[in-house]
Specification:
The complex is a heterodimer of chains A (about 450) and B (about 450). With about 450 residues, chain A is of the alpha+beta class. Chain A has 16 helices and 18 strands. In chain A, strand 5 and strand 6 form a beta hairpin. In chain A, helix 1 packs antiparallel against helix 3. By secondary structure, chain B is an alpha/beta fold. Chain B folds into four domains: about 90 residues, Orthogonal Bundle (Fumarate Reductase Iron-sulfur Protein, Chain B, domain 2); about 60 residues, no CATH class; about 140 residues, Glutathione S-transferase Yfyf (Class Pi), Chain A, domain 2 (Up-down Bundle); about 110 residues, Rossmann fold (3-Layer(aba) Sandwich).
Chain lengths: ~450, ~450
């Protein structure tokens, strides 16, 4: 059912006419997010400027049974902010104020539309550190990061978004505004409801404020690149580094295809004559950094690294990290459609998983580029395909099924950091099992009895 | 089949386009923070990703070329900052030109006034430099005999609509002499001749900045180049391609190729970023013209922005007597830094000038709002960007801004004038030429 004109009028009355988009030409650019090959036209787009706007919109949605799809910058990779047909896209990018940096408690209070980069920069300007750095951090919003529980390159040592959320302001489906958490390091009053909203993908409520935990900025860091003639060697080097009880802040891996694409874009002189590349960064106290860097270099050499290079300046190091963050988009250089996956396994199973992905690509005659966060077992095998080639797309789907099955068999998960959304929806029930699915469904029904919040995402109620 | 010289005027530009160019965009959103229009509105339609989605919708048949679509394509500055940001390598410049051509073909924006203006400028004025010069002579006269000053003083302009007053105040000062009156057809190299180059004098550049052309020729000569500067040149077609007049752009490109056979020169030099960014893509423009495509390919390799060329051959630093100390900041023309990826070379040239202290400009790569004729057709957005640029320039507290594009030069000059800011806005090559002259 398309949105009725009186519904648009009511929404306009809430947020003002400048904050409502209804023209076809305005809606087409909101018919997708960062996920490949998914398209659905919304009924309208509404920009909220504050929590009261959102509360009024949700109350009205209840009354009229309108579907609400909350969206930040639309960079998600599981179709979480993909519109449902004729829905109201509730966009939070205009709520983009940093409200407070509390140096005494090491916290930052922000609105949901602030970009991850703006948060990192503001923390850095206060000599503090906000570690989560998803690939899209230049434009991804913190609201989206919390809703998807985004990871990034530093997950291994610093964890993911969840580990930095101390409090949330959430608008519930019935329009109630609720505060969860506070600035206390310790707080065991009641269930930890805030943690249910982290990673809830817009299905339980709308996040309107985030209280973030900051940490002291590491005093030193060192970034290195090691190249290998075989993928196995790189995987073994990673296992050896972890086994030596070194936890670098970054331990990233790129295969040959990905290296070539990234270099083609970033032109920073990545070595092109190798099968695998490890990007490693250690940070912390200068003495520890020096020692760990030395150890990692020695381990890589012992595992047959062709070359180990140390970034000479901070600018060089930043270039390497930013080049790695562009890996997924850069892979789009070689194929019309790039479908990125997010299978994650325990670190001990990494080499096995990488070999399996290679076999699968061969089995189904598919081109693949693999990169990922090797240190935390979060791989991103990316199929290089063309969505108009239906036969090949079918093989891609089959290949994914096998990859997920293998990830689960190895004790892993179907998504490490991108979320379920639409992309993994069909895989969740078998992964989670019946009991968990029942709890998920009942929980969702309690918080959103009429099913207006991101309906059809993650799982069906 | 393949002998058709130009794309047929019928049929859709976007539908005829290789679909994979559109598919190249995987809508990751990394272009958003670098897009000045998205930054201003936070609305996806005003972003590169949003615009590409509209183009794709047209190619798919999900959308017709509507007035809103066409307006959006003209709201885009064409600054190409998105191309620098895009890891996927989307050729936005190509998409954008086809989208504007689509808009023009559909005629959805047609109005008697708009058609008249386009007929006069694109189809008549900029198709022949002689006509442009004629207008130039007229404007020069208007300014020289004091008529402009008189009119401005008299307050008579207040009777005209505000927009016309604004436009009048933006009219650039026409140079007392055009390039052909200043520059010999052949300028010998000073000292040993190492290269033979052709000098493109441009159209706006020729009228308003013929002095920069003279400086460029002088600098080239001092760096061992014999410079060939034909007196009558043609518009490079950049204005036409950027404004949806594909066939005219093709025609002008052929004229360039006829006048400057690429094999005859070591390099073909331009000092206007906006032209250079277009001039380097003749092969793509003439891809379906077998009579020209080979020559166009050779041409693309020979066209060099002056900064790029000097860096390539190793610029001769001015020696001997030097000018008093000057503090300079550098604004990057979009079509140099994004369109041609030329960022370090102009800085290297400025740094080669003795006694010149270069201060980095915050957001040096952010568009100043000039964007060809954008400041005329989209004054509101253009002024917003100009204010932002001026704010950063003021923050450097430097009295000289160097920039390598006539549009940016004019835009910043007008901005400074509006704010009463004592600012010298100058092409980097002029500063180099002055340093050479002082060192004599």
């Amino acid at each position: 059912m398309a949105l009725a004109s009186q519904d648009i009028e009511r929404l306009t009355a809430i947020v003002g006419s400048l904050n409502v988009l209804t023209k076809k030409e305005d809606l087409i650019p909101y018919a997708f997010d960062g996920t490949a090959a998914m398209l659905q036209m919304p009924g309208c787009v509404v920009f909220a400027e504050n929590a009261d706007h959102i509360a009024a919109i949700l109350k009205f949605a209840q009354e009229r049974d309108l579907a609400i799809v909350t969206r930040g910058s639309g960079t998600g990779l599981s179709g979480g902010s993909l519109p449902t047909k004729d829905c109201v896209v509730l966009c939070t990018v205009k709520m983009d104020r940093i409200l407070e940096i509390d140096r005494a408690n090491l916290t930052m209070l922000v609105e949901p539309g602030v970009t991850t980069l703006a948060i990192a920069d503001a923390a850095s300007a206060a000599s503090l550190f906000y570690p989560p750095d998803p690939g899209s951090m230049k434009i991804s919003t913190i609201g989206g990061n919390v809703a998807e529980n985004s990871g990034g390159l530093r997950g291994l040592k610093y964890g993911v978004t969840r580990n930095y959320v101390m409090g949330l302001e959430v608008v519930l489906a019935n329009g109630d505004i609720m505060w969860l958490g506070n600035k206390c390091v310790k707080d065991v009053a009641g269930y930890s409801l805030k943690d249910i909203f982290v990673g809830s993908e817009g299905t339980l409520g709308v996040i309107t404020k985030v209280l973030l935990r900051l940490i002291p900025k590491p005093r030193a860091k060192r970034t290195m690149v090691a190249t290998f003639s075989q993928m196995d060697h790189a995987a073994e080097a990673v296992s050896a580094i972890i086994a030596a009880q070194i936890i670098p802040c970054t331990l990233e891996f790129l295969d040959r295809t990905t290296i070539h694409c990234v270099e083609d874009y970033a032109k920073i002189g990545l070595p092109l004559d190798c099968e695998a590349l490890l990007l490693m960064e250690t940070d912390g106290h200068p003495a520890v950094v020096a020692e760990e860097a030395g150890q990692m270099e020695a381990i890589c050499r012992a595992q047959h690294a062709m070359e180990v290079r140390v970034a000479q300046t901070d600018a060089d190091a930043a270039k390497l990290a930013s080049a790695r963050r562009s890996a997924f988009s850069a892979l789009a250089r070689v194929a019309p459609t790039t479908i990125l996956e997010d299978a994650t396994v325990p670190r001990s199973e990494l080499a096995k998983m990488i070999r399996f992905v290679e076999q699968i690509a061969k089995k189904y005659s598919l081109r693949i580029g693999t990169f990922g966060h090797m240190g935390d077992g979060n791989l991103h095998p990316t199929f290089l395909t063309d969505e108009r080639n239906h036969d090949e797309m079918h093989r891609v789907e089959t290949a994914f099924k096998e990859i997920f099955a293998e990830a689960i068999r190895l004790g892993g998960t179907i998504t490490g950091e991108h979320g379920i959304g639409m992309a993994k929806k069909s895989f969740l029930p078998s992964f989670a099992g019946e009991a968990q699915m029942r709890v998920l469904r009942e929980l969702r029904k309690v918080l959103d009895p009429r099913g207006v919040l991101n309906p059809g995402k993650m799982f069906d109620v | 089949m393949t002998t058709t010289k130009t794309k047929p005027e019928s049929g859709s530009h976007l539908k005829n386009l290789d679909y994979s160019v559109l598919q190249q965009c995987m809508h990751c959103g990394l272009c958003l923070p670098t897009c000045p229009t998205y930054d201003a509105t936070k609305i996806e339609r005003n972003s590169p990703r949003g615009r590409i989605s509209l183009m794709r919708a047209i190619a798919d048949g999900r959308l017709e070329a509507t007035p809103t679509f066409a307006d959006e394509m003209y709201f885009c500055l064409g600054c190409l900052a998105c191309m620098t940001a895009c890891p996927a390598g989307v050729n936005y410049a190509e998409l954008f030109e086809h989208a504007r051509a689509e808009a023009e073909q559909s005629g959805v924006l047609n109005s008697p006034k708009r058609t008249l203006i386009r007929q006069f400028t694109l189809r008549w004025l900029f198709m022949d430099l002689r006509r442009l010069r004629l207008i130039g002579y007229g404007m020069r006269l208007y300014q020289r005999i004091g008529l402009q000053a008189l009119i401005r003083k008299s307050g008579i302009l207040k009777l005209f609509p505000k927009r016309l007053q604004e436009l009048e105040s933006m009219t650039p000062t026409i140079q007392p002499k055009f390039s052909a009156e200043l520059i010999d057809a052949i300028t010998p190299a000073a000292g040993q001749k190492k290269y033979r180059v052709a000098m493109l004098t441009g159209c706006a550049q020729d009228l308003i900045f013929s002095d920069v052309n003279l400086d460029t020729v002088e600098v080239l000569a001092r760096n061992g180049c014999e410079v060939v500067t034909p007196r009558l040149q043609h518009c490079c077609g950049s204005l036409h391609a950027h404004n949806g007049e594909w066939a005219m752009a093709q025609g002008l490109a052929r004229k360039q190729l006829d006048q400057f056979p690429p094999d005859a020169y070591d390099a073909i030099i331009t000092n206007a970023a906006g032209c250079g960014s277009h001039l380097k893509h003749y092969e793509k423009l003439l891809h379906d013209d077998p009579a020209y495509v080979e020559r166009a390919r050779a041409w693309d390799h020979k066209v060099k922005d002056i900064h790029e060329w000097l860096a390539e051959i190793g610029v001769k630093p001015p020696t001997g007597r030097s000018l008093p100390a000057q503090n300079v900041t550098y604004h990057e023309a979009c079509h140099l830094c994004h369109g041609q990826k030329i960022t370090s070379q102009p800085r290297a040239i400025l740094n080669a000038i003795p006694n010149l202290n270069l201060t980095e400009l915050p957001e040096s790569m952010w568009c100043c709002g000039s964007a060809g004729i954008y400041n005329i057709i989209q004054p509101e957005m253009a002024n917003e960007l100009l204010d932002r640029k001026l704010k950063h320039i003021k923050s450097t507290q430097v009295p000289i801004v160097a920039t390598g594009n006539p549009g940016c030069l004019l835009q910043i000059v007008n901005g400074a004038k509006k704010e009463g800011l004592p600012l010298r806005v100058v092409h980097p090559i002029t500063l180099l030429a002055e340093a050479y002259r002082a060192s004599k």
